[in-house]
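Study this:
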Amino acid sequence: MLTSRRIPRTVHTCPFLIATIVLSLALLTHASEADELVVPYDVKGTDSRVLLKDSDDESGNGTACVRGGGEFYGVDGLCHSYSCMNWYQHGPRNFTGYLEESPDPLVCQDLPNFPDVFYGSVSFRCNSLTPEPIQMGFNRKCTANPSGGPSTLFTCYELSDNTDFAPFLDEVNASLASGFSCANDTVETGYPKYTYSVFYENRYGNTGNSVSSVGWDSTSDLVEAYALDGGGMFSTYKEIKTESPTSSPTAPPTPSPVASSSLPSFSGVSLVLIVTMLAIPSMF
């Protein structure tokens, strides 16, 4: 007489479980690749710490670049006074685009009028920026095309050597006569003052950075030499990211239901495991 016997479940379930584990690991790998963060373009082979070296720190050759002394720590390991030319040649490359092997010359010209630039070269202000500071603009513009093509542009503003500060000082004196004053607060001790600030920006497509630094320390009286050498400067570097066009449009492949990127990473794995656990008993 024929008799029936139950085959041990492990004989049937092992291959199915192995396949499930392999599929789960594949989904985990897919999830880690899909969730990977894309780091924005940063520095072109240049140590970004150069931005922090314009403090009272020792450079590689023992030269101290003093913050507030009108200078910055260059990529060549030396201290340089803030100017459009020095910044373009020795500033951090991700803020200038300067190419050592084939540098595009920096072309500068004096401007008859102050351009409409948000930042000022020299300001007469309170520490709290209230009331609104009195700013002097820029009258010298420098440009370069580091890549030699339309995808990059370096622009820098500064003051020309023959700058006339009289109109700015007249505006300051008129404001003081009209009651310009700072709040009676400890943070305003010694203010208002003249400040000599440095601003630099970069733009890579839709991303970028803006940095505010110090040229010279603030002074109670205007020091024209500070404003002309190592003082007010504003630069911006723009790089346009372009994508290579495809030869002809192609329809994207239809993803498999399980590996679809629309499923949450770990929810997809859990779904496979739950379906597997529910399907195994039904086989017997």
